[in-house]
Amino acid sequence: MSPLLEIKDLSFGYDKGSAPVFEHLDLVVQKGECVIVKGASGSGKSTLLRLICRLNIPRSGEILFKSKNVAEIPPPELRSKITYVQQIPQMIDGTVRDNLRLPFTFARGQHKAAPDDAALMRMLDAFYLHGVSLNQFALKLSVGQKQRLSIMRAILNEPDMLLLDEPTSALDAESAAMVFSIIERLSTSEGKTLVIVTHSDYSPAVPKVRKCIFRNGKLECA
Amino acid sequence: MRMNQIIEISIPQLLLALLFILVAQAASLIHKLGLGRDISIGTIRTVAQLFLMGYALTFIFGAQTLWLTLGIFVVMVFSAVFIIRGRVKEKQIPYEVPTFLTMLSSYFLTALFVSWLVIGVHPWWEPRYFIPTAGMVIGNSMSALAISIERLFSQMRQQRDVVEMKLCLGANCREASADIFKGALKAGMIPSINAMMGVGLVFIPGMMSGQILAGADPLIAIRYQIVVMFMLVGSTAISSIIVMRIIRRRCFGQSEELLVSPE
Predict the structure, then answer these.
(1) Do B258 and A107 make contact, defined as CB atoms within 8 angstroms?
(2) Domain residue spans in chain A?
(3) Are residues B159 and B86 part of one domain?
(4) Which residues are bridge partners to A210 per DSSP?
(5) A5-221: CATH class
(6) Of B43, B63, B83, which residue constitutes the final position of a domain?
(7) Which range, B61-70, B165-174, B217-226, has the best average confidence (pLDDT)?
């Protein structure tokens, strides 16, 4: 079976002529896998995720998603299938409901039925957001709550693959534990394919986990 | 004194007006504002530029040549883009060429529409009408464009993470930047809309004042002013929308990735 994501000989640098962030990087991600990417600051962990969903463009090499070059997939379609969740969660100026239904307001998501309030409430509970109401202003939530809400919003978009960039870096221990628990459930119960960039020593208790580390511009996977 | 009689300002009378500049210089000196140099340069430039324009217009009105009129129009638009470039400190995204071409085409059509169809001048390029009309359109829309373009770039930078969040959720580049686009467009258009609210109540516009001072019937002057006010709102809207749409697309790459780098 062909892998869900295949990265071949990927190189990236920010400006023409500047030193590359990394070169000749290869990575294969199978469906249902949970890949943890570690490395020092500036090693290119977040950049790798941004390259996968084409928020940045590589210097050379190719990224195949379901055997198709990501450069040939219309960007809104690609980013709906491979959804990147930023390190610092971002909310629009509106209620929790407005934020959760945001993907369904775009042309790409309009053909999908937006979840009703009852479904959203059930999901809020599952994401440890019990006390949060749909009418609450999202910008007033804590960082930990916003982080869980942003992962939930990405899941509502039904992606094939989720890219999580330092999902717990700005959180206290309690909030981080909740996010870890959500990640483990998404991987184990729902079979989601995840690529997680992290600084912490977190190792999720999931069957299909694989650890990779950036060393000297190379990605080494177990 | 009869209407239509113009009182000529002699050179000594003109020099008398310099007293106002001396008052401004004194204010700067007393309050240590440090504006003395700017006031002096501004005074010299005002006199020099306006005299130059006066002689140029006298020549152009006398020459009655289509290509000379259009040449002056192109120079005016080029100067406007140069001034916008001075106000918008954007180095990363090239916007000058589309701005120049859009201003050139949309202002030409506006000036043509007003001088030919609304005022009914023959030939349509009659410099006495075409050049002042174009000047008002260019001057007004230049300020609006400078505000809108500057706002678009600064907001794209400030709200970079929000724009990328929307892109990641499946938005196309238009959807991801829709709020920023609207805000920037409104910021540029509001001054000319506000001007319509205040005209005749709060202030008498420059063109109408000029016509009245030159001896025109105020009832004729107001008709010209109404045309000008409408023309300014319309031309600002058209040029802003076209320029902003082009610049917004340039803020994103081929894969609809945001190119505007962080501050």
Answers:
(1) no
(2) 5-221
(3) yes
(4) A35
(5) alpha beta
(6) B63
(7) B165-174
| B91 compared with A70, residue with greater pLDDT | A70
Which region among A65-69, A115-119, A184-188, B148-152 has the lowest average model confidence (pLDDT)?
Answer: A184-188
User: What residue of A is the nearest CA neighbor of B170?
Assistant: A76
Task: Enumerate residues 6+ apart whose C-beta is below 8 A from B107.
Answer: B73, B77, B134, B137, B138, B141, B235, B239
Which chain B residues have a beta carbon less than 8 Å from that of A83? Answer: 168-169
Residue B201: pLDDT over 50: yes
> Which residues on chain B are in Cβ contact (under 8 Å) with A107?
172, 175
Tell me whether A154 touches chain B (CB under 8 Å).
yes
B111 and B41 in one domain? no
Q: Tell me, what's the pLDDT at B4?
A: 55
Q: In the β-sheet with A34-38, what is the strand arrangement from edge to edge?
A: A82-85, A161-165, A193-197, A34-38, A209-215, A218-221
List CB contacts (< 8 A) between B257 and chain A: 54-57, 75
Any CB–CB contact under 8 A between A56 and chain B? yes
> Is residue B255, in this structure, part of any structural domain at all?
no
pLDDT at B94: 92
The amino acid sitting at A68 is: K
| B102 shares a domain with B29 | no
Q: For residue B97, give how far its alpha carbon lies from the nearest alpha carbon of chain A (Å).
A: 24
B42/B70 same-domain check: no
Task: Look at A84 and B172 and tell me if their CB atoms are within 8 Å.
Answer: no
Give the domain range for residue B80.
64-250
Q: Tokens 């909740």 map to which residue? A: A178
**Per the structure, how many domains does chain B have?**
2
pLDDT per residue as tens digits for the range B15-63: 999 999 999 999 999 999 999 999 999 999 999 999 998 998 899 889 8
Q: Is A1's pLDDT higher than 80? A: no
Residue A66: closest CA among A108, A27, A30, A25: A30
Does A57 contact B170 at a Cβ distance shorter than 8 Å?
Answer: no
Instruction: Confirm or reject contact between B13 and chain A (CB < 8 A).
Output: no
How do residues A164-221 score in pLDDT, each as one tens digit? Answer: 999 988 788 888 888 888 888 888 888 899 999 988 777 777 778 899 998 887 888 8
**d(C-alpha A117, C-alpha B67), whole Å:** 66
State whether B159 and B175 are in the same domain. yes
Residue B159 C-alpha, separation from nearest chain A C-alpha, in angstroms = 10
CA dist B99 → B94, B95, B133, B236 (Å): 10, 6, 20, 13
* A16 in B contact zone (CB under 8 Å): no
Q: Which amino acid is at B91?
A: K
Whether ipTM exceeds 0.90: yes
Residues of B in contact with A154 (CB under 8 A): 168-169
B197 interface with A at CB cutoff 8 Å: no
